[in-house]
């Protein structure tokens, strides 16, 4: 079954591209393909103008971060969770400590740093997921409906906070959502995918 048939799609450096469409349109498949977690049957994915070859995939994945609809946290403290991506990338502890402090402040979770992940609310857990993704200093941030599982007040607060930090930090981002208001609010550009086509 052909899931996606895209002639061309691009994300400019520092931009947030919001991708919307109905369920089953191919939005998440696009995100998984661009993150090289799903193989494409034809076509080319370029990163900074160069094709991502099979032997380049690990190096490429070390330059991206992903946040999914449900927070996937380790059963440890918030502090440890935020620093995880940086540890995988071999960063120094002093650098990790500085980055954890910065991003926990940006996402307003400094008071949660000693708390275990299983003690967090849904909104808090998603803030930790975003902090962990951003602390790794990704060249591209992939977001797959990161706000959709939250209750309305938590969702509204997190979207506002994310919008503020995005305007300040300009992280190149691909946001997949089915919410048009969210796409228009956060996106520098919006791509609509219907039946696998933009």
Beta content: 5-15%
SSE string: EHEEHEHHHEHEHE
Radius of gyration computed on alpha carbons:
17 Å
User: Major sheet, described briefly?
Assistant: 5 strands, parallel
Q: Averaging pLDDT over every residue, what do you get? A: 91
Instruction: Enumerate the strands of the largest sheet in spatial order, edge to edge or round the barrel.
Output: 4-5-6-1-7
Distance between the termini: 17 Å
Unreliable stretches:
none
Number of DSSP E strands: 7
Helical segment count? 7
State the helicity in percent bands.
25-40%
Structural class: alpha/beta
Query: Which overall shape is indicated by the principal axes computed on the Cα atoms?
Result: globular
Write up what this structure looks like:
The chain is α/β, with parallel strands linked by helices. Helices cover 39% and strands 13% of the residues. The protein has helices at residues 27-34, 57-61, 78-88, 93-106, 122-135, 152-169, 180-186, and strands at residues 16-20, 46-47, 50-51, 64-67, 140-144, 173-176, 189-192. A 5-stranded parallel β-sheet has the order 4-5-6-1-7, sandwiched between helices. β5, α6 (152-169) and β6 form a beta-alpha-beta unit. The longest helix is centred in the C-terminal third of the chain and has 18 residues, at 152-169. The two termini are 17 Å apart.
């Amino acid at each position: 079954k052909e899931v996606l048939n895209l002639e061309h799609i691009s994300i400019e450096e520092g931009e947030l591209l919001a991708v919307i469409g109905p369920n089953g349109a191919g939005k998440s498949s696009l995100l998984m393909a661009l993150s090289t977690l799903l193989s494409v049957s034809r076509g080319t994915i370029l990163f900074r103008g160069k094709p991502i070859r099979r032997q380049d995939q690990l190096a490429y994945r070390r330059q991206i971060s992903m946040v999914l609809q449900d927070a996937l946290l380790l059963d440890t403290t918030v502090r440890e969770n935020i620093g995880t991506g940086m540890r995988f990338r071999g960063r120094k502890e002093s650098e990790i400590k500085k980055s954890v402090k910065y991003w926990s402040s940006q996402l307003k979770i400094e008071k949660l740093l000693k708390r275990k992940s299983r003690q967090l609310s849904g909104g808090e857990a998603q803030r930790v997921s975003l902090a962990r993704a951003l602390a790794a200093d990704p060249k591209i941030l992939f977001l797959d409906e990161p706000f959709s599982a939250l209750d309305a007040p938590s969702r509204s607060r997190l979207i506002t906070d994310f919008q503020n930090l995005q305007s300040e930090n300009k992280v190149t981002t691909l946001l997949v959502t089915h919410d048009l208001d969210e796409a228009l609010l956060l996106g520098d550009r919006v791509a609509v995918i219907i039946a696998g086509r933009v």
